Amino acid sequence: MPKVIASDLDGTLLDANHAVDAYTAETLQTLEAQGLRFIIATGRHYLDVRGIREVLGIRAYLITSNGARVHDPDNQLVHAENLEPEFARALCQPEFAAGTRLNIYTDDDWLIDAEDEWLAGLHQDSGFTYQVSDVAGHSGEGVAKVLYIADHEYLLGLEERIRERFGDELYITFSMPDCLEVMAPTVSKGHALTVVLGELGIAADDCVAFGDGLNDLEMLQTAGHPRLMGNANAKLVAQLPDVLQIGANTEEGVARHLRALFDLK
């Protein structure tokens, strides 16, 4: 039986409105009382996820910015990896950012190049939000992640151009079809999960993990008991053809699967 539960947020643990539902929170709190440990693994900013953890009411480790940051349940920084400043500066220039809504994450800030109503609506549980800034003029120091938001087809072309320019010097992934994310080359949720499991002294075989997006691939490959959401990205499903698919996030899929797995009434 698993000893630790790792889960993505958007499209996985959160509901259709990107919020915590009471049934899921109650399920996780009940399992924690029985001794289960939790890891939240997401592309979101640490300060945002810290607020979501409070709403869930559990003492979880936080893997954020797709693995560029790891914090323990007491908010102590466990692991951090930044983009090389020269790469971060280059990625923020119009050569790559034109035609997108450009964002960067640092330890304390989420910077964006213009207002974005859709993004502002994703963070009602935590209250954390962006600051409009001259992102192209940023020094590139301390950047955990560069995020481009645009139509998926446009981002596919942008991904190809970034790979042609930087090769394997960057980790590039999609968190959602319209969100292309760029981190340091050794960053991934899978690597960060290994870090946390080492901190806990728990083997990967004792971890059940849930995800729906391409940025969850390495985490699901690392965990001994991977689970795909019913609403998972088709490209992710194709890469993990033998992984069990459960209910969708809109059906409280994670909570319902955990209740069955741990025989909660």
TrEMBL record:
PROSITE patterns: COF_2. One of its GO terms (molecular function) is metal ion binding. It comes from the Bacteria. InterPro entries: Cof, HAD-like_sf, HAD-SF_hydro_IIB, HAD_sf. Belongs to the HAD-like hydrolase superfamily. Cof family. NCBIfam families: Cof-subfamily, HAD-SF-IIB. This is Cof subfamily of IIB subfamily of haloacid dehalogenase superfamily/HAD-superfamily hydrolase, subfamily IIB. It comes from Andreprevotia lacus DSM 23236.
